[in-house]
Known about the structure:
Layout: H1 2-18, H2 33-44, E1 57-58, E2 65-68, E3 71-76, E4 79-84, E5 87-94, E6 106-107, E7 110-113, E8 117-125, E9 131-138, E10 141-149, E11 156-164, E12 175-182, E13 187-192
Parallel strand pairs: 1-10
Antiparallel strand pairs: 2-3, 3-4, 4-5, 6-8, 7-8, 8-11, 9-10, 9-12, 10-11, 12-13
Helix pairs in contact: 1-2
Amino acid sequence: MRRTLKYLACAAVTAAVVGTATVSYAVPAKAPHSTIAKARAATAAHPAAKKTAPTPRVVAPGEHVTAAPGFELWLTAEGKHWTTPSSPEPQFRSVVDGNIDRNTPGVSMQSEGTESRAYLSGLYYGGKGTASSVEVETADGTVRGKLIELPGKPGWGVWYATADVKPGSGSWDYVSQVTVHDTKGGIYAQLMR
């Protein structure tokens, strides 16, 4: 009996030191109440990790991000650069030419594609808090995209997504809304068309 309690106490201490989130324990039916309390305390001392909201992927200036074959994006201090399968020559959207106010929440959008696929991207800027996720409302339903930013706090970033286009639904008004959410679930910035 004492040997069992000794091993149980060693297992509880080892689990506490290692940082195990949960500990299984077996206590003999006639074990003293204090042994059971110690084993339960060791289990409660390490609650499961708190889940946090996603944040934008931080990329180095000029680092290419492949969203889909032929659809690449990269950021520089001057703005967003991208290519698509139908436009392999690099395109550019400036963040320093005065066309956007990084102090006011906003979202821009560029859309290119084929009869069956849309390549969607744009800037987001000026929101409060930390951007977390993007949802794009299309004629074919909601698409969830991704966010990228340069290191530090540039005050802007880029969202991107791809969408399968159903026959007959592709047109210039294919996207009706782009919403960038913050880490608290609120709206960081939004574009409504």
